[in-house]
């Protein structure tokens, strides 16, 4: 597998297993060019193709992309419609590449809130790539960290009520098992483009100890070179998880 991440001669390169990305700045990219926001989303779709391809080649095992939040439903209907159309187009145009490159597609978020044609396309793509195991691409769609945690609470409460779970056994591990990401390790690295210093309801639980990288680059301008630079920067971070430095 091709890798253009600089090697550390002492220890070898520490690649994150799971990279998460808040793909932000499509609207501003379009505005700067006096274009409709939808043009920014269209251009953003090219950056999605780029990061999926690059991650697979570099050897990232899980890539989670924040594509649509629970709060994004408050956007104008026309923008939402355009985003859903783009998503459907992405799923059909990229399916063969996902299959050829052994990439599994998975959805995290409220599938039931998506338009039925989009949900049907998602289910088809997920089923056709279910056995792929080189990389898992998680698309966060109608995803919100708070809604996810509330859903987990409800699922656990139901089990307590049915006598299947004892209150004393409600641990962080048990909560984690009831999230969309039950079988996915927490991301080591979270990238946000467009320079906003906030998490915007993304992976609230899972990002407890994630290394954050905020870049001013707008998502449609995000390149493979910058991605590789962030990955090598990640190598220099010292992750302590609350422990004392020794
Ligand atoms: C990110 O770009 C894409 C989605 C949230 C769907 P934005 O549309 O939020 O772009 P800005 O933040 O307005 O520039
Ligand atoms: C976060 O971006 C959601 C996605 C990238 C899908 P937003 O543009 O919705 O976040 P805010 O409004 O700037 O916090
Ligand atoms: Mg935004």
Describe this protein's structure.
This protein is α/β, with parallel strands linked by helices and about 250 residues long. The chain has seven helices and six strands; from the N terminus they run βααβαβαβααββα. The chain has a single domain, classed as 3-Layer(aba) Sandwich (Undecaprenyl pyrophosphate synthetase), CATH 3.40.1180. Helix 1 packs across helix 2. One 3-methylbut-3-enyl trihydrogen diphosphate binds next to helix 1.
| DSSP helical segment count | 7
Distance between the termini: 35 Å
Low-pLDDT ranges? none
The secondary-structure class comes to: alpha/beta
Corresponding CATH superfamily = Decaprenyl diphosphate synthase-like
Highest CATH level, the class: Alpha Beta
SSE layout:
Layout: E1 18-22, H1 26-32, H2 37-58, E2 62-69, H3 77-100, E3 103-108, H4 116-128, E4 135-143, H5 145-161, H6 172-176, E5 189-192, E6 211-214, H7 224-234
Helix pairs in contact: 1-2, 2-3, 3-4
The chain binds 3-methylbut-3-enyl trihydrogen diphosphate (2 copies) and magnesium ion.
Sum up the structure in keywords:
246 residues, Undecaprenyl pyrophosphate synthetase, 6 strands, binds 3-methylbut-3-enyl trihydrogen diphosphate, binds magnesium ion
Brief rundown of the structure:
This protein has seven helices and six strands, in the order βααβαβαβααββα. The chain is an alpha/beta fold. The protein has one domain: Decaprenyl diphosphate synthase-like (Undecaprenyl pyrophosphate synthetase).
């Amino acid at each position: 597998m091709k890798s253009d991440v600089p090697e550390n001669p002492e220890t070898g390169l520490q690649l994150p297993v799971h990279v998460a990305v808040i793909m932000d700045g499509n609207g501003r990219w379009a505005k700067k060019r006096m274009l409709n926001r939808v043009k920014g989303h269209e251009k953003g779709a090219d950056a999605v193709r780029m990061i999926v391809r690059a991650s697979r080649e570099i050897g990232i095992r899980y890539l989670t992309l924040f594509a649509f939040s629970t709060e994004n439903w408050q956007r104008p209907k026309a923008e939402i419609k355009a985003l859903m159309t783009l998503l459907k187009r992405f799923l059909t145009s990229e399916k063969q590449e996902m299959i050829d490159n052994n990439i599994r597609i998975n959805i995290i978020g409220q599938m039931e809130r998506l338009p039925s044609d989009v949900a049907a396309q998602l289910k088809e793509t997920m089923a056709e790539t279910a056995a792929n195991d080189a990389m898992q691409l998680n698309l966060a769609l109608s995803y919100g960290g708070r809604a996810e945690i509330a859903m987990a609470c409800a699922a656990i409460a139901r089990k307590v009520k049915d006598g299947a779970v004892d209150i004393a056994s409600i641990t962080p591990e048990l909560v984690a098992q009831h999230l969309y990401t039950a079988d996915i390790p927490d991301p080591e690295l979270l990238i946000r483009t467009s320079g906003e210093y906030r998490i915007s309801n993304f992976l609230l639980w899972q990002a407890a100890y994630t290394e954050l990288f905020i870049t001013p680059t707008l998502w449609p301008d995000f390149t493979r070179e910058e991605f590789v630079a962030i990955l090598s920067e990640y190598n220099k971070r010292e992750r302590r998880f609350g422990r004392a430095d020794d």
